[in-house]
Design a protein that fits this description.
Length: 242
């Protein structure tokens, strides 16, 4: 069976390795079937998409909607390389799943509007499936409403013209969308459980997601969250395309 590919952009080893472990856990894949490339570490190597059953893009510190002048050289390179790869992925309708940063990358690539209108603080939010979401195979078996972990500075304000809205939340109208038949993006993090989220809270405490002095209070607010369903999307994706 062909492996899946995870494209990561997290420069911090603790966050990058934790993200990989989280994707392994919720996809049910073993390391040999989930290959990882850290895009921030250097130029993207040649990728033959025929070698892969599908492609995941994880989250990270980059914001697609930031002005060019505010983007580092590394971010600009990553965005160019990822956009070129998306040209082929979209043309082939190759199975793709972008988590958080995936909304920005796939959304921009397909003509959506990504900005800071619907940013959400680090929290657990109630997500509601649309009618199309309830019928989508990657969301199969999920309840019509469920809680998910979020934390993002930008979001999709206007869907790409060819996208189908699959899920929303009260403060962020676009939580999941699909392009064509096989290209998915989520604003929430389906790969996160509470322990993994707290690791990211600590890693990114100076990244502007929350005031660092409020770390303990933030963790206390997160602790009661019961987030059990989002990871099902990753398992469904692998079951469908693997």
């Amino acid at each position: 069976m062909r492996p899946f590919l995870l494209l990561s952009s997290r420069a911090e080893d603790l966050a990058a390795d934790g993200e990989y472990e989280s994707f392994l856990r919720f996809t049910g894949l073993v390391p040999g079937r989930l290959r990882r490339i850290r895009m921030e570490a250097g130029p993207l190597p040649g990728i033959d998409l025929d070698d892969y059953a599908g492609v995941f893009v994880g989250g990270g510190p980059f914001n697609s909607s930031d002005p060019l002048s505010g983007k580092s050289v590394v971010q600009q390179r990553v965005e160019r390389e990822l956009s070129a790869l998306l040209d082929e992925i979209v043309a082939r309708d190759l199975p793709f799943f972008g988590a958080c940063y995936g909304v920005g990358t796939l959304g921009v690539h397909q003509g959506g509007v990504i900005d800071r209108t619907y940013a959400e603080p680090i929290s657990a939010v109630r997500v509601r499936l649309t009618e199309a979401g309830r019928a989508d195979p990657v969301l199969a078996g999920m309840p019509a409403e469920f809680d998910a972990f979020v934390g993002h500075k930008e979001a999709c304000r206007v869907l790409p013209p060819n996208a189908v809205l699959l899920a929303s939340s009260a403060a962020c109208p676009v939580q999941v969308f699909r392009v064509k038949e096989n290209l998915y993006a989520t604003q929430f993090h389906p790969e996160l459980d509470l322990e993994a989220l707290i690791t990211r809270v600590d890693v990114y405490q100076h990244a502007g997601y929350y005031p660092p002095a409020e770390r303990d209070a933030l963790v206390a607010r997160l602790a009661p969250a019961v987030v059990t369903e989002p990871g099902r999307m990753l398992a469904n994706f692998v079951a469908r395309y693997g």
